[in-house]
Amino acid sequence: MRVLGVNAIYHDPSAALVVDGQVVAAAEEERFSRRKKGKRPVPFAAWELPELSMRWVLDQAGLRPQDLDAVAYSFDPALSKPAEELGLDDPWDHLRIMYAQRAPGFLAAALPGLDQSRVRYVPHHVAHAASAALASPHRRSSVLVLDGRGERASHLAGRYQDGRLEILFQQELPHSLGLVYESLTEHLGFLRSSDEYKVMALASYGKPRFLEELREIIRPTGDGGFLAEAPDWSRWAPPRAADATLSEESWRGPHADLACSVQQRLEEVLVELARWVHAQTGDPVLTMAGGTALNCVANSRIWRETAFEDVWVQPAAGDAGTSLGAALQVSADGGEVPEPMPGADLGREWSDDELATWLRSAAVPFTTPEDLGGEVADVLARNGVIAWFDGRSEFGPRALGHRSLLAHPGHPENLEHLNVVKGREQFRPVAPMVLLEHAAEIFSDGPIPSEYMLFVHTVDPAWRDRIPAAVHVDGTARIQTVDPARQRRLGATLEAFRARTGLPVVINTSLNTAGRPMVDDPRDALELFGSAPVDALVLGPHLVRRSALFAGGGERGSER
To answer: Do domains 169-313 and 352-550 have the same CATH topology?
Structure first.
């Protein structure tokens, strides 16, 4: 069965392709259009389809639209209610519903040859749930989905077994932990439905001074649901202008305290919801998706404080992942028990020769070293910054060693330096990559392996002075474990760096600058390298040094 999955209704538009139960490809539209987040989540934009990513995933399998058995659209307008009946202030929401109803026609226009009758609606939270449970390595699991909103709910709790979902509870709107967090994001001067991760980072600088009051406003109901509506945040901290600079004083003032208080209350409620699910199912495994599942601090508390033995989170847990989940669900409904996703590297890639052609066409001097890992480790050991581009691009918001910026973790100033390189706020941390075999000696209080950077771990006190740039203000780090057997070039580089420095860790952040999507193709990589102060670019097996690029060479060719 050949199923194209499409997410278009809210934000992070994306496409995914599942063939005979196997995940072939998945990509976010922003990586092609170079428009951050793809589009804004407003009703007026709900008609926009991820046309570029849809065409690309079909090309990956050599398929035409008429070859598809189904197109899975991750929203079911038949389940929707008018916004006013849901208690939401969204006077144009009816446009969103109308566009969803007309999606089969829009899809057929975007993909000539597609039979409209093959479009199938998958409820939004079911698509999220499938993206977790059906993509995970586990054939049976409990599942927890939380986000801002779907058709009429904000939360789903259930369990999957052999590809079939049993829904245990759904929380009706307007109560939504995701919408509460989005509202706080906007109050703190960040971009709603985009910058929630900044609130999570800011929370570590505050104190939970308002937690007791929030416990009265946001609370579980004991039946699998909760009460959660955004209060007037001004009672605790004034609104911050969106274009105002967040000064260092603000990091530890009332705005940080409010972020800390809401973050802690979110964690507490999520733990209670996960405990309720486990009491119903007794399953050893919990799988999670929805935008709230990108809150890695909360994920770690669920892992530590509930009876689940394992917690698996979809790396594209936000709305982008619903294209994958919708395709998996339709495949399962057709009688195919899907195979687990092979990894988060589901996007575009280029052969070594194609990358060399890009470099020659750009008149960029480069080498193709026999010991690439060693030469890159030398640059890192001398405190250089590496732009790293290797293999298929990541599906989801985390840079996982395919489109990354890498630096030495042993110099505390490198946190500030990387934030300057990227043009982002100084309170935001960067994440350590660590060789899998050494992870447990440095990091604790979180699952290991942790290959998708979706949990926080406590950094051993003996290591905090050795890798200060990797340690957040609260003594934690959001780690990615690297298995050299799975990521050969990256693993070799980490091993070479350890041989030179004694540190099996480098710091990593996404390969982009502020306000722009993550680098996806070689042109993006070369443009960033030409404009950002990084010392070297890895493009597959090829190495470009800034000193050579700006030394006046620029000849077309390669040397070994």
So the answer is: no
- What is the mean pLDDT of the segment spanning 140-145? 98
Which residues fall within 8 angstroms of residue 241, CB to CB, at 6 or more apart? 189
**What pLDDT, on a 0 to 100 scale, did the predictor assign at position 246?**
63
Please give the pLDDT value at position 560: 36
The H-assigned helical ranges of 61-151 are: 93-101, 103-110, 124-133
* pLDDT tens digits along 372-413: 999 999 999 999 999 999 999 999 999 999 999 999 999 999
**Do residues 407 and 501 touch, judged by C-beta distance below 8 A?**
no
Superfamily of domain 352-550: Carbamoyltransferase, C-terminal domain (3.90.870.20)
Spatial distance between the Cα atoms of 115 and 2, rounded to a whole number of angstroms: 14
Q: What is the pLDDT of residue 559?
A: 39
Compute the distance between CA of residue 300 and CA of residue 60 in angstroms, rounded to an integer.
36
Q: What is the pLDDT of residue 551?
A: 73
DSSP 8-class letter at 92: T
**Residue 394 DSSP one-character state:** B
**Where is 159: in which H helix or E strand?**
strand 153-161
Could you please state the CATH topology (level 3) that the domain comprising 2-135+319-334 is classified under. Answer: Nucleotidyltransferase; domain 5 (3.30.420)
pLDDT value at residue 81: 94
Q: Is the pLDDT of residue 557 over 50?
A: no
Distance CA 281, CA 195 (A): 34
Residue 138, both tokens: 């586990």
Structural tokens at position 198: 């900044």
Spatial CA neighbour of 215 closest among 145, 265, 254: 265
Provide CB contacts within 8 A for 300, sequence distance 6+.
Answer: 445, 446, 455, 456, 457
- Its pTM stands at 0.96
All residues at 6 or more sequence positions from 245 whose CB lies less than 8 Å from its CB, including other chains: none
CA dihedral 373, 536, 506, 407 (to 10 degrees): 160
pLDDT above 70 covers a percentage of the chain that reads 97
CB 344 within 8 A of CB 396: yes
- Furthest CA-CA distance within the chain: 69
Helix 321-333 to helix 124-133 angle, to the nearest 10 degrees?
80
CA-based torsion, 202, 203, 205, 207: positive or negative: positive
Count CB-CB contacts under 10 A for residue 223: 9
- Report pLDDT for 193: 87
Domain residue ranges of the chain, discontinuous segments joined by +: 2-135+319-334, 169-313, 352-550
Pairing of strands 366-367, 558-559: parallel
C-alpha to C-alpha distance for 479 and 456, rounded to whole angstroms: 7
Asked whether residue 243 carries a pLDDT value surpassing 80, the answer given is no
Within 13 Å, how many C-alpha atoms sit on residue 415's CB side?
18
Task: Count CA atoms within 13 Å of residue 92 on its CB side.
Answer: 7
CATH code of domain 169-313: 3.30.420.40
Residue 423 has pLDDT above 90, yes or no: no
Q: Is the pLDDT of residue 439 over 80?
A: yes
